[in-house]
Amino acid sequence: MSSWHPDWIVPDWPAPANIRAIITTRAGGVSRGPFASLNLGLRTGDDPQAVAANRARLRAALPQEPKWLRQVHGGDVVDADALTGTPEADASIARRAETVCAVMIADCVPVLLADRDGTVVAVAHAGWRGLAVGVIENTVSALGRDPGGLLAYLGPGIGPRAFEVGLDVRDAFLARDPQAAAAFAPQAPGKWLADLFLLARQRLQRAGVDSIHGGGLCTYSDTARFFSYRRDRTTGRMAALIWREA
User: Fold this and answer.
1) Domain-wise residue ranges, the chain
2) pTM of the entire structure?
């Protein structure tokens, strides 16, 4: 494996030494225009050859090809060790060494998970829809470990001062957890500012995960470093990846 681009994010969390994770940024690729430069998304409208070149650069930093998903903002979790195709899902887990769990992001929060023994890893794509239908709880359950022995890291996502939503989004969360009200600030009649990071933390804590790290890097406000679908619509995708070494 070659070393990764210096701008990519290496999570700062107390994971075991054999757990490796990276989150890419816009830096280090060949795409142009609104996709500049390391766009990893094939369904964005970018030149497929540029995306292939970008994915090859990422692959050079990994032990094997990432287990990509066809993300649908749902709550399904798949076993990355057994994947041969690209299933519709928004989270994956792996117990086998060097299986690379991966999600693509451009405002939704990536949630990385590992156990303190370094035996299992997972990643979830947690936008508001995924959070509302339980993608975090489903992922924690699929890991099959005591939630109290898990570690979580929240990667970059749209920040609480940029994510305006309607009453329907707020109601979707309050229906399941009245404490979610703390994650919504009134903005205008029928409009609220939502804190995805806080919503993710609340869901992790309700699932029994207390060791939660990261959160706070806003994709929307940092144009130079991050792609943001809400900001630009036509834009690229970054990736959050996690695996365990043998």
Assistant:
1) 19-160+207-244
2) 0.98
